[in-house]
Design goal:
With 153 residues, this protein is mainly beta. The protein is 10% helix and 39% strand. A hairpin with a 2-residue loop joins strand 5 and strand 6. The longest helix has 16 residues. Bound molecules: zinc ion (ZN). Keywords: Metal-binding, Signal, Zinc.
């Protein structure tokens, strides 16, 4: 009888080492990825980097452009000084039309603040003189529609 018992115990020990008969381990399931609903109040369409000097809409404070994207300050708008920018945000574009400006014929489109709809300036869609080509795709915002925002001092 002892021999059979020993055999049985060895068999059991082996079984616990590699046990094809043991039931699948039941434990707590890993947490399922939960859907996170981000419900931040939508004020403006885009926000510029907080650590940059930037220009904002003077009427509603929507961010408009980074100081880094300023190309030139020596432009003339319909109501005074205007700045030329590489890129802008929160700005909508009207239909392009051909206009004769101080520097010749251009195709331009009025731009407005997406947030408060104020007309801010215009976008150069196309320049017809080679010396003015650098302005294509760039944006003019009149100074009286902008305020300096964040980190200027
Ligand atoms: Zn605005």
């Amino acid at each position: 009888g002892a021999a059979i018992l020993t055999f049985f115990m060895v068999f059991q020990a082996l079984g616990s080492l590699c046990s094809p008969w043991s039931p699948p381990r039941v434990g707590p399931l890993p947490p399922a990825p939960t859907m996170v609903r981000i419900s931040k109040p939508k004020t403006f369409q885009a926000y510029l980097d907080d650590c940059h000097r930037r220009y904002s809409c003077a009427h509603c404070r929507a961010h408009l452009a980074n100081h880094d994207d300023l190309i030139s300050k020596s432009f003339q708008g319909s109501q005074g000084r205007a700045y030329l920018f590489n890129s802008v945000v929160n700005v909508g574009c009207g239909p392009a039309e051909e206009r004769v400006l101080l520097t010749g014929l251009h195709a331009v489109a009025d731009i407005h603040c997406e947030s408060c709809k104020t007309t801010l300036g215009w976008k150069y869609e196309q320049a017809f003189e080679s010396s003015q080509k650098y302005k294509e795709g760039k944006y003019i915002i009149e100074l009286n529609h902008m305020i300096k925002d964040n980190g200027w001092d």
